Amino acid sequence: MAKEIVNREENYSLWYNNLVTKADLAENSAVRGCMVIKPYGYAIWEKMQAQLDKMFKETGHVNAYFPLFIPKSFLSKEAEHVEGFAKECAVVTHHRLMANPDGPGVVVDPDAKLEEELVVRPTSETIIWNTYRNWIKSYRDLPILINQWANVVRWEMRTRLFLRTTEFLWQEGHTAHSTKQEAIEETEKMVNVYATFAREFMAMPVIVGRKTESERFAGALDTLCIEALMQDGKALQAGTSHFLGQNFAKAFDVQFANKEGTLDYVWASSWGVSTRLMGALVMAHSDNNGLVLPPKLAPIHVVMVPIFKTDEEHSRVIEKMELLKSRLEKLNITVKIDDRDNLRSGFKFAEWELKGVPVRVAMGPRDLENGTLEIARRDNLTKESREFEGTENHICSLLDQIQDNIYTKALKFREENTINIDDYETFKQKIEEGGFLMCHWDGTAETEAKIKEETKATIRCIPLEGPSPEDGKCIYSGKPSVGRVIFARAY
Amino acid sequence: MAKEIVNREENYSLWYNNLVTKADLAENSAVRGCMVIKPYGYAIWEKMQAQLDKMFKETGHVNAYFPLFIPKSFLSKEAEHVEGFAKECAVVTHHRLMANPDGPGVVVDPDAKLEEELVVRPTSETIIWNTYRNWIKSYRDLPILINQWANVVRWEMRTRLFLRTTEFLWQEGHTAHSTKQEAIEETEKMVNVYATFAREFMAMPVIVGRKTESERFAGALDTLCIEALMQDGKALQAGTSHFLGQNFAKAFDVQFANKEGTLDYVWASSWGVSTRLMGALVMAHSDNNGLVLPPKLAPIHVVMVPIFKTDEEHSRVIEKMELLKSRLEKLNITVKIDDRDNLRSGFKFAEWELKGVPVRVAMGPRDLENGTLEIARRDNLTKESREFEGTENHICSLLDQIQDNIYTKALKFREENTINIDDYETFKQKIEEGGFLMCHWDGTAETEAKIKEETKATIRCIPLEGPSPEDGKCIYSGKPSVGRVIFARAY
């Protein structure tokens, strides 16, 4: 089973695709660029959703649902927004099919053309701000702190499972505030929620930073982000939080009476993470044996594989396993006993390694004699034999250790691959090796564009954390700079 | 506040719309037939989802996600299916907009026409069975027990919030089995899950039955359903579960090797409930003061309204309320203290009645003196004064009583409005009054169609429960019948 995965060192891209498909996370569908998220992959996404939803609610947000379709004219109302999204829209033009008059099958009914075309939402700022206009009259109606779990469609030309798909699942927060300050604070609060989620649940270190103007969301005044480093040295943007200023309020004429009774435009933020996080999770931790899932997001924490020759041994091993399972379940640990009768245990071991189950328990006749069992860790592939009694508590703390270890390992990798670069020649060399290159930049879009053109590296972000900024000279232009930014090639 | 709602007796349809919009459940959007589900409405839907999802998982199902888009040609593969859905499809024909060469705004880019049009899923049998073909080789791959939470689009000409909208949210189960018997059992199991959910959580009595051939799902061999009676005497189909036979397996060539090693087509079921349940919930229980929510689905169980004149009284009342709130929260009861300073308590009372919060607690200076509080029930609008101490346990059992009472009341209403009718003249009279009319029917589609044409009544279902079938004569044709079926006008 595991043999079917190409080595990460050999072909990273194929290794990723092998993992996603062979570990049953997702696969390509019959519809170009759209994926099928399979049950095992969806179970991980459900865990992500549940945790994020909890964190959103703890920070005062509520969920709602807005239409899938956006009237074409809405998109045009915010100039930069339409510029950013018009080129990749699925457009609904008709509302009926009819029997093909010239043969079998169905064709679009020309009489069912829509008066105004509808765009399948690529993001929902426009339809939501058009709705908020009717909800907001006074400062007493603010803030509005709404999140939506939804599917969105962006017609991508080059797609990759989870990382870039035509349709993807995501959440989009859309908040409305009476002051600029409050909207900025919301933007910052939510990027920090994402950072906490990435670190504590995905076990994935991220850097919180600010996007440069050219990398901003279409329609935003400021875009904050979390950036992670994948094992091939490429960066991955894992979440963004936008301060939208009054752009959408002005485009959709959303004004409120403030405490003084005068009218003002409403301030906005929007923020989102998507099923792209699934791709980040896979690429951040997995190895040549398969997925490595952090326990906090693993659909199965412990898999048990019985070893036996006779029916009598089988039933005695299973009995012990059921006992341990019930003890673990009391500790909120999810257990699967793999009792399939048509597969050898070696095959099962490989399959559950591929699927990234954090802990594997094996037990055979000798274990029954000795009152022992074998515990294998997925993260570092170590095994140990232990006494059966008390194992549930051991596994419970082992899961915490594994969660920590996966994070620590990823953090170490990032630290080893984050380097200060002070001249452009070294930059051009090092960018080939990947990693976060911390460089001085003169703050101009021209320099940024030139470097991108020459090296395919982009400014991932201007970090908001880490060492305090130091003055320096731009690696490209030599002009003065007020602090290092992160350059990398990115997904 | 409550005054803005028209009386149910005066205009039932407007009353319903008033409730849905004024209680902040949902509203119409800028997109024809698509609704915005507002936070309070969405919170109820989330409770429904959570409970249904739990019940699906307890019956062995897992969630997955399939594409929003369906290639046009897929729809045609199952003859009845395309007949049922082709006329109400949103069709994506292009994948790009461009700047309007003749003026402002954007237009569809004619160069971005799709080779094959995509239909926004009206239901997912076709795309899912096309996927299952690759997943199923042998009986060991079966059963597949998958559910999907998704949005779907059916281009309805006449829409009503929740009851019939162009886009709606739903879940759709799609299962694959190696035997006919197993698929039939699954179909029955899931309609019973729906019945349990409706009765125990929505406090809504339903009848489990079988649809006649003309009311079946397009592509099904058998459709089971739950039917509920609304307060205006109209029926509402609240959930369906379909036995699909081998229709989709044949249309998409999904075969498996059985234990004997021979190839056979796979057997299928599909089943779904949607945001239509929200409409059913509103119409089943609400009154002229607003919503009446069963506690098990209420986003807020208890609302507390402080009564006070001075700041000192205010802070003492709030302190007591916070104490009770914390005690209630330990019992998993959701509490809101309505401390808005710009509204009178009478206004608040009316607003929370409108929103259907099951229990209201009021407390004022005299209550502080006496160690009491006032408890009002939303379901029967009764009030009582009680001692503060121990109230949390009282409220806890009160919520159970309210849940039961709402169900009992709805059941009584249905029983009073379910009558046996044995002649067509009486039928034509009684159908004007509404209710479930239990009648003999000769089993032919012709009779069914005639009755529908003449009276707008349809056969809601052939009940699978209730009194054992008795022979009789069809009310329309006088031909022999083997049991009564339920006629009603329906949403």
Q: What topology emerges from the helices and strands here?
A:
The structure is a homodimer of 491-residue chains.
Chain A: H1 12-22, E1 26-28, E2 35-37, H2 39-58, E3 62-63, E4 69-71, H3 72-75, H4 79-85, E5 91-94, E6 97-99, E7 106-108, E8 113-120, H5 125-135, E9 144-153, E10 167-177, H6 180-200, E11 207-210, E12 222-229, E13 235-245, H7 247-251, E14 255-257, E15 263-265, E16 267-274, H8 276-285, E17 302-306, H9 311-330, E18 335-337, H10 345-354, E19 359-363, H11 365-370, E20 372-377, E21 383-387, H12 391-416, E22 418-420, H13 424-433, E23 436-440, H14 445-455, E24 458-463, E25 472-473, E26 480-481, E27 484-488
Parallel strand pairs in A: 3-9, 17-18, 17-19, 22-23
Antiparallel strand pairs in A: 1-2, 4-8, 5-8, 6-7, 9-10, 10-16, 11-12, 11-24, 12-13, 13-16, 14-15, 19-20, 20-21, 23-27, 24-27, 25-26
Helix pairs in contact in A: 2-6
Outline type of chain A? globular
Say what the CATH topology of the largest domain in chain A is: BirA Bifunctional Protein, domain 2
Helix content of chain A: 25-40%
Q: Count the helices of chain A. How many?
A: 14
Strand tally of chain A: 27
- Largest sheet: number of strands, sense, barrel closure of chain A: 11 strands, mixed
- On the 0 to 100 scale, the average pLDDT of chain A is 96
Strand order of the largest sheet of chain A: 3-9-10-16-13-12-11-24-27-23-22
CATH architecture of the largest domain in chain A: 2-Layer Sandwich
Structural class of chain A: alpha+beta
Strand content of chain A: 25-35%
Biggest interface, which chains?
Answer: A-B, 65 and 65 residues
What number of structural domains do the residues of chain A give?
A: 3
CATH superfamily of the largest domain in chain A: Bira Bifunctional Protein, Domain 2
Low-confidence sequence ranges of chain A: none
User: Distance between the terminal alpha carbons of chain A, to the nearest Å?
Assistant: 28 Å
Oligomer: homodimer
| CATH domain class name of the largest domain in chain A | Alpha Beta
- Rg value of chain A: 26 Å
